[in-house]
Amino acid sequence: MAATAARTGAWIRRFHPAPEAATRLVCFPHAGGSATYYFPVSKSLAPEVDVLAVQYPGRQDRRAEPCVEDLRTLADLVVEQLDGWLDRPVALFGHSMGATLAFEVATRLERSGNAPAALFASGRRAPSRHRDEAVHLLDDDALIADVRRLSGTDSQILEDDEVLRMVLPSIRSDYTAAETYRYRPVPALTCPVVALTGDRDPQVTLDEAGAWAGHTCGGFDLKVFDGGHFFLNSHAQQVTADLRDRLTGR
């Protein structure tokens, strides 16, 4: 099915369709995040880049669906949904948990003969760098405290008990998926990898971010920004400008 005619369905959000763009960028949200996090990215890059954002089950309009607590299973499901969007070069961008998921999707696309044009891994250590983490096993208060520590969810949502109880299951599920992930050695990607990180990110050291270089034979670049885990929020213009330059070859 031609991508211009493909239905976005439940999984894919295409906020600013750019059918004439030479390249697509598929964006993967962080733990507890949703596709709308990438609305500003889509708006900024259109019409030069056709941006797709993945909507995971268990949030917003998919809240009634069961969450997926295994990143490999989630990657398999996403790849199925991308089948109709591979008629032009596709790059992948993921933040935090989304970066690991984007990596797993990239490996699957390569195996199927649809190697991505690039992988942008933001706010996440390389898959081969493991940390023992078990926040997903803590009680609700401790989980919320960790989300607040990373500034990953709107504080107004966290302070609204009714809304919080609606989104907390998806946050815990994503934490489970991220923290139980274990890297399984696979051939290095052939596409270039760009790692982006904040210089004060408690979740990622510069060494852990630089280790993404070992997952590609297609070129590597490390971009370090002032900030913590969600450095993207304060450097959005700079990040999107760099994405535009890299994806359009300017």
Automatic annotation (TrEMBL):
<comment type="similarity">
    <text>Belongs to the thioesterase family.</text>
</comment>
<feature type="domain" description="Thioesterase TesA-like">
    <location>
        <begin position="26"/>
        <end position="247"/>
    </location>
</feature>
<dbReference type="Pfam" id="PF00975">
    <property type="entry name" value="Thioesterase"/>
</dbReference>
<keyword id="KW-0378">Hydrolase</keyword>
<dbReference type="InterPro" id="IPR020802">
    <property type="entry name" value="TesA-like"/>
</dbReference>
<protein>
    <submittedName>
        <fullName>Thioesterase II family protein</fullName>
    </submittedName>
</protein>
<dbReference type="InterPro" id="IPR001031">
    <property type="entry name" value="Thioesterase"/>
</dbReference>
<dbReference type="InterPro" id="IPR012223">
    <property type="entry name" value="TEII"/>
</dbReference>
<dbReference type="InterPro" id="IPR029058">
    <property type="entry name" value="AB_hydrolase_fold"/>
</dbReference>
